[in-house]
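Lab notebook, bench 4. The sequencing result for the construct came back, and we need a structural model before the next group meeting so we can plan mutations. Quick request posted to the team channel:

Model the 3D structure of this chain.
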Amino acid sequence: MKRYLTIGYGVLSYLMFLVAFLYAVGFVGAILVPRNVDDGIAAPTGQALVIDLGLLGLFGVQHSVMARPAFKRWWTRLVPKTIERSTYVLVASAVLLLLYWQWRTLPGQIWEVGQPAGRWALWAVFWLGWAIVLSSTFMINHFELFGLRQVYLAWRAKPYRELGFRTHLLYRLVRHPLMLGFLVAFWSAPTMTAGRLLFSIGTTAYILIALQLEERDLTAQLGESYRDYRRRVPMLIPVPSRQRLVKDGEHGRQGGAAARCRSAV
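Done. Here's the predicted structure in token form:
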């Protein structure tokens, strides 16, 4: 019975992620959802600013704190290791759903691209950003990242073994293509409202801070192999370095701990 509860919990957490992820596309793009970054709950500007910043802060704190190795060591004293990742995914999804539900509207328009060709181009880049996000999860291990592999192995009564992290495809261009995809999607706005600008600035600040913490953890776990990866491959902007051009293709795999350190949206 415990094994079935474990896999059921993992599947439920994954379904929550799917809902939160799909709603995120509509929320940021103001597409087919009842509340979005441009049209939330009406409130005075000052109140809206405080609440929206608080929601973004809650999102950032939850993602960063629960992803840290020290928290995981403490947390797995309370919850089984088999559902640790699923719990992270479940809580992260719940925080995102709370943000969608309680987001306040901020009036004002920062810019608008009026030319149809320009608008279509920005929409194309918007969808490209989300495609990069989703595809990046499969380039490491989508099912490991969102806890399904862990609960599946527990259901089959098989021991968990860490997977190696392959630095191929987009991970040979930038170290964090998943986060790059988010940034591309968030800033590709034919119409940039005050609400979307706040959301984009807040999430960009979180990403830049979180990547510093993640890279510190990865360097501590992988040592020189990850330092070499950092020297060869840029963090977010895919500009090739001389060292990368010389060593391109030499490294197929990094240590398995890297895959587990990658954090989800």
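The radius of gyration is 19 Å.
Will bring this to the meeting.
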